[in-house]
Design brief:
about 800 residues, 5-stranded antiparallel sheet, 4-stranded mixed sheet, single chain, 19 strands
Length: about 800
């Protein structure tokens, strides 16, 4: 161990570490690893992090398994996912961290283990990056160490493992690194830091969680403005516009790094479910869903007030995470906010915290209407409550400032007693039942049962809060009074802060059996996997207007490489959704003509019943997911590809009613939008004669089909394939390029000349190819920014040291 003398700088903040171990960064990192490992240790046993109620179980595992298996078997990232909602682009529709570094883990270890390890690693990175940022702010080792631990274990990060929101955690972990990079670039003018800015921006966008990245970049913009115009050490004169331009260029370079994901996404967006038109009222309701109700601010120090997990009674009706900050962290943050030597930094970060707290409130604050109307893209996203991570981050910084001041004995012992007393009073109100009465008065009448069930947890949580406030208050008082000094003071502060956060965080680390057990075959899937694809299975969607539950939850069938009619995604094709009756309603889903169009061969139902044109294959039998299912098969195998003798063009708004009409001759006519680049002969009088040629799928793989045309027809006919159309499908007929059209509102269709014999369909994403080239170039440029300063002693420009 060693003590250091204060270092003179041109900043008003004195640098006096007081205590610093010999290997400061290494020791801090080791503690952060330990904190994550204690929470995540069942991963070593192969357990599945998130359990059976997380998005990782519902869809994430299927997405990542498909991507990993396709990459290992073909050497390429798959571009088309045929297993959900009639098919969708794999990259364009976004299926998780396809290009983020965590994907590499899935190439060398079991997918379930790799997914859980990604969460655990990013908790560590959150602590490390916060520590690095705080050290750059010239916080003492003790303060930076405590601040990093507070951020790593803050509820809005650690609890994300339960819902399985890894993209949110990735961005949350990277944001302190982005602030650090901007600090070194804009304040200190370091060239390598501009490279770090671009790399961090690119990683955030590849996470991928565009909404979280949007929030992080906006906050980073505020931070940059502070560094340029409010930081006493900021650049002056001609250097200011140079650094501003360089920062903007670094951000654009980071966007270019993510082009491999962004360009396919932007290409697909007009055709995705998120592009579907909504009324202004519906759009507002969607965009403000899952905001943070103002009364839930109590949960930042007492999460049991609104209930955890199944006991949650708040306005969102369903919640798997928490905004818990910890009473001791908040007390330290109060001390930190009062730091006069860091007043400007406190104002800047405090402004960010308040700004994003108002965003997190959503419709609970009138401010959000301004944000919603002014900011691009905000009408297509929801859950503004996720912005709370940009409240938690400044709070962790302030807690570091507070720990710094406490160890320097700049906080009066009486102030410690006052702060601890306020939180002790809150705990006593919970123990006495006052908060339970308040909860009953605030809750929706439909949730009063949850409020009553939460009573013991609220009382217990209040008691735990009281114990930690007393213990933490005693530690803080002893440090402030000089009774406890470094290194014992640092260890004691970190211990009480870490333990308080751990007591809540551990409730969100839910584990299930290993993934091979959770996603094992059962009698139904084993039977289905004996069939040669392509074929489609109808299982009721999770949300539908009939109220019939699905046999298989989420995208389970995709994990078995079985083509499901629905599944769980959220960004499926809008034409598909509209044809089936609207997202999360699917009012047309039992119409037989749709089942014909989409080649539904199998049906799974929760119970036994007579189904016209289907016969029971097996069941009822238990499924691996704990439900009961019965498997039915169509009496005659439907054609996955058909040759249609005639075609017609209609306005868009007339196609769906026409196709759904029971009198529509789907085997004789295919309908195209009136904007289609095809001119079929008009239909007058009798229907076109049935095609004398037939189609047969000879080869099928995700994003690739080969179809033989048996027989001949003297007319131009029309191939119709039971898979979703997309602009990036490419067709050849007998080796010659052909046009792919959107037939019967959503399906792939190709006009066939007389005598056609062979059709090849390939999903060839030009946006992906272009994006990949841009990303490679941007990565090389970023590498140059990062590495050149290491080999160059003197900068070419004095402002870019």
């Amino acid at each position: 161990m060693r003590n250091r003398e204060p270092v003179a700088t041109n900043t008003p903040v004195a640098t006096d570490p007081l205590f610093e171990p010999r290997y400061p960064a290494l020791i801090a990192t080791a503690v952060y690893i330990l904190a994550s490992a204690v929470l995540s240790w069942p991963l070593a046993q192969g357990k599945f992090l998130g359990g059976t109620v997380s998005d990782q179980y519902s869809a994430g595992y299927a997405f990542r398994l498909f991507g990993a298996e396709m990459f290992k078997s073909t050497g390429h990232i798959p571009l088309w996912n045929p297993y959900l909602f009639g098919g969708m682009p794999f990259v364009g529709a976004m299926h998780g961290d396809i290009f983020y570094p965590t994907a590499w883990l899935r190439w060398i270890m079991p997918v379930g283990t790799a997914m859980g390890l990604g969460f655990a690693i990013h908790l560590v990175l959150a602590g490390v990056f916060m520590y690095v940022f705080l050290r750059a702010l010239r916080v003492s080792w003790a303060g930076a160490f405590v601040g990093g631990l507070a951020y790593e274990l803050t509820g809005i990060l650690a609890s994300l493992v339960h819902p399985g929101h890894d993209g949110k955690l990735f961005v949350s972990a990277l944001t302190p690194l982005l602030f650090f990079a901007l600090l070194r670039a804009v304040r200190d003018g370091r060239m390598w830091a501009y490279g770090l800015v671009s790399l961090t921006v690119g990683l955030c966008l590849l996470s991928p969680h565009p909404q979280m990245s949007y929030y992080a970049f906006f906050a980073a913009g505020i931070w940059t403005l502070y560094l340029l115009f409010g930081d006493p050490e900021g650049s002056r004169g001609a250097g200011r516009p140079v650094r501003m331009a360089c920062a903007a260029g670094a951000v654009l370079l980071g966007v270019a790094i993510a082009a491999i994901q962004l360009l396919p996404f932007l290409h697909y967006m007009p055709y995705s479910a998120r592009a579907a038109a909504m009324t202004p009222e519906a759009a507002w309701q969607y965009a403000t869903g899952y905001a943070l109700p103002i009364e839930e601010l109590v949960t930042t120090v007492l999460p049991q007030f609104n209930g955890i997990g199944e006991l949650y009674w708040g306005q969102n009706f369903f919640k798997l995470h928490t905004e818990y900050l910890g009473a001791l962290v908040v007390i330290l943050a109060i001390f930190g906010i009062a730091d006069r030597n860091r007043r400007r930094t406190v104002w800047a970060l405090g402004g960010i915290a308040v700004f994003f707290l108002l965003i997190a409130f959503g419709a609970h604050s009138p401010f959000y209407r301004i944000w919603y109307e002014v900011m691009p893209g905000m009408k297509k996203v929801r859950a503004p409550g996720m912005a709370f991570f940009l409240v938690a981050m400044p709070v962790a910084v302030f807690a570091a400032f507070g720990a710094d001041r406490l160890i320097r004995r700049e906080v009066r012992p009486s102030r410690v007693l006052m702060a601890a007393g306020a939180f002790a009073l809150l705990a006593l109100l919970g123990i006495a039942g006052v908060l339970q009465s308040l909860a009953a008065g605030l809750a929706d009448p439909r949730m009063l049962g949850q409020v009553a069930a939460n009573d013991p947890a609220l009382t217990g949580g209040s008691l735990v809060l009281l114990l930690f406030v007393l213990a933490g208050g005693a530690v803080f008082w002893a440090v402030a009074a000089g009774k406890l000094q470094a290194p014992g003071a640092v260890a004691a502060i970190a211990l009480v802060v870490g333990l308080e956060l751990w007591m809540v965080d551990r409730q969100f680390f839910v584990f299930g059996p290993p993934a091979p057990q959770l996603f094992a075959d059962d009698a139904i899937t084993a039977r289905l996997r004996q069939e040669k694809p392509p074929y489609r299975v109808f299982d009721f969607p999770q949300q539908n207007d009939r109220g019939v539950p699905p046999v298989y939850h989420g995208s389970f069938l995709m994990a078995k490489q079985i083509q499901a009619t629905f599944g769980y995604h959220g960004n499926e094709g809008r034409f598909y959704d509209e044809l089936w009756g609207g997202k999360n309603q699917y009012s047309n889903m039992v119409l037989g003509n749709l089942w014909d169009l989409w080649a539904v061969r199998f049906l799974v139902l929760p119970d036994t019943q007579a189904v016209p044109n289907f016969h029971r294959v097996l069941g009822p039998v238990p499924t691996i997911q704990g439900t009961t299912g019965t498997l039915y098969e169509r009496d005659s195998v439907p054609s996955y590809a058909r040759v249609i003798g005639g075609a017609a063009k209609l306005p868009e708004d007339q196609i769906v009613p026409t196709v759904l009409d029971g009198r529509f001759p789907a085997d004789r006519v295919v309908v195209y939008p009136d904007s289609a680049s095809v001119a079929p002969p008009p239909i007058s009088g009798a229907l076109p004669a049935a095609a004398t040629a037939t189609a047969r799928v000879t080869s099928w793989a995700p994003g690739q089909m080969r179809i033989a045309i048996d027989g001949t027809d003297a007319r131009t006919t029309y191939l119709l394939v039971s898979e979703n159309w997309d602009t990036e499908w490419r067709a050849t007929v007998d080796g010659k390029p052909a046009t792919t059209l959107r037939g019967d509102y959503a399906l792939i269709s190709v006009p066939l000349p007389p005598g056609a014999r062979q059709v090849a369909l390939d999903f060839v994403s030009r946006s992906y190819t272009t994006g990949r080239i841009i990303s490679i170039i941007a990565l090389l440029a970023t590498a140059a920014l990062l590495l050149v300063p290491l080999v160059r002693r003197r900068p070419a420009h004095p402002d870019l040291a």
